[in-house]
Specification:
By secondary structure, the chain is α/β, with parallel strands linked by helices. It contains 18 helices and 20 strands.
Length: 493
């Protein structure tokens, strides 16, 4: 590693309306260095990397590459200058072959200007063999492979592109332990080739394994850049949170009190293993984990939206049939709201239609009348506090907090026994968060079971009776929510 940075960001600031996402952040990267970037959700990590990758080009401060000022116009511009980003959300095209995904946008051409398929396939085979993945058939559609392999292909595509600066945003979120080991080997290969990696991860043990230096962001500001050899996980957590961590972890406990409304027994799929948990009547349970922990896929599996291999799901004593669908789950007392409001609600439709849609078969023997739907929706709107309380308004006209209230209101007409809600307060202001959490707490107080699935520690700490922590597809702790705080949860990831 040289002492002269190949890339520098100086006093970078970025605003989104009234939100100061980055405030005078400095960052540099040396040739052949693995530089990790850590911080809580909302600390500014992804915003900083999107500036580096040319996604955001409106900001204050200086961007230097090889000591020369640079103003990127687009991600394509960044890639042309040797800066590639592997995003948290996959950008592969599953319908195309592995080879086509590896060379997307830069396919080898014949003299006639058409794609040279033979050369592309042979080159793809050679590259995958060289990088340690000879078992991947480059001719097969990528959709034939598991999500972890698709993530690997996305990483390989950026490496094969020749980028000398590779930004990895939560690269192991969909990977198995074996695939994580392969990725770490790939990172070492990149380092030996004098290329550099910026590595973003919530998994601090992983960061300590791969990084040369670690930069910590908090609330949009840089608080420290440390040599990996001169720090430890507890110090990193203290810097991330802004206070000293407690020395002792609480004792893991389970809850056997009360009537069990949700009983998950040994549930196993490709991204989670042997999940056992219970939610009792009147209990709010927080299921917490970092991105890639498997808890969001577990929630989808409960509702019939993600296939599982083995295990049992029991709601109020009724055993679910294996790999049921959403309609079956609703009929047998399970409700679910996804972490994406735009996926669970129909933004162009009226509020009342969004509330009654899952229950049309119950509202009338035949086609339900709008008057019936409106009457039902008005009661649910009043109970949930949707504002403005106008059932004919399109959901898309509401604030994020009120959209989430609609997602809850749709279950108040025919209440489930158990309500599973993923990231219920994502992207909301403090007032809206408190209103939504109050609704869910009341749902528990009324005798229903509530499972809150979140990667935000504040959410589960503020509402849960018990907190279950998942990491790498497994439950690692179950604790009563007594004297818990964020540093305890982070140390369990």
């Amino acid at each position: 590693m040289t002492n002269s940075p190949i890339l520098q960001l100086r006093h970078i600031s970025k605003r989104f309306g009234g939100l100061q996402a980055l405030d005078a952040v400095d960052f540099d990267l040396q040739a052949g260095e693995i530089h990790a970037l850590v911080g809580e959700n909302g600390a500014g990590k992804s915003t900083l990397m999107r500036i580096l990758a040319g996604i955001y080009n409106e900001y204050e401060g200086d961007y230097l590459l090889d000591d020369k000022p640079l103003k990127l116009q687009s991600p394509r511009d960044a890639l042309n200058r040797g800066i590639g980003m592997i995003h948290q959300e996959l950008s592969v095209i599953p319908e195309l072959s592995v080879a086509e995904n590896l060379f997307l946008g830069r396919q080898p051409l014949t003299r006639l200007g058409t794609i040279d398929w033979n050369r592309m396939i042979e080159t793809a085979k050679q590259e995958l063999t060289r990088l340690g993945f000879p078992e991947i058939d480059v001719r097969k559609p990528l959709e034939n492979y598991a999500l972890g392999t698709q993530q690997v292909v996305e990483v390989l595509r950026t490496i094969i592109s020749g980028a000398r600066v590779i930004i990895m945003d939560e690269p192991t979120s969909a990977l198995s332990p074996a695939e994580i080991e392969q990725l770490i080997q790939l990172i070492q290969y990149v380092r030996q080739d004098k290329r550099s990696v910026i590595y973003i991860s919530h998994f601090l043990e992983e960061v300590m394994r791969v990084a040369d230096r670690i930069t910590v962001l908090r609330d949009g500001r840089k608080v420290a850049t440390l040599q990996q050899s001169q720090t430890n996980i507890n110090e990193l957590i203290s810097l991330i949170l802004g206070h000293e961590v407690n020395a002792d972890l609480p004792v893991t406990t389970t809850s056997d009190d009360g009537q069990v409304l949700l009983d998950i027994q040994g549930l196993t799929a490709d991204v989670f293993q042997n999940i056992n948990l219970r939610v009792n009547r009147g209990e709010v349970v927080g299921l917490y984990g970092a991105i890639g922990a498997g808890h969001f896929d577990l929630a989808r599996a409960l509702f019939g939206m993600y296939r599982y291999d083995t295990g049992n799901i029991i709601v109020d004593g009724h055993g679910f049939k294996p790999n049921h669908d959403a309609r079956y789950a609703i009929r047998h007392g399970l409700a679910y709201a996804t972490e994406s409001r735009r996926k669970s609600l129909f933004m162009e439709d009226a509020i009342y239609r969004n509330i009654t849609l899952p229950h049309l078969n119950r509202i009338g023997a035949f086609a339900p009348q709008a008057a019936q739907e409106l009457q039902i929706a008005r009661r649910a709107i009043e109970q949930s506090g949707v504002n403005p309380p106008e059932p004919l308004n399109p959901v898309g006209n509401l604030s994020g907090g009120n959209q989430q209230k609609v997602a809850i209101a749709r279950w108040l007409t025919f209440p489930p026994k158990v309500f599973v809600m993923s990231e219920p307060t994502r992207g909301m202001d403090v007032g809206a968060k408190n209103e939504v959490l109050r609704l869910l707490r009341n749902f528990g107080n009324d005798g229903y079971g509530v499972l809150i699935v979140s990667s935000e520690p504040e959410t589960v700490l503020s509402i849960s009776d018990r907190i279950i922590v998942m990491s790498r597809g497994q439950i690692v702790a179950q604790m009563a929510n007594k004297d818990l705080n964020k540093d305890v949860l982070m140390r369990l990831l």
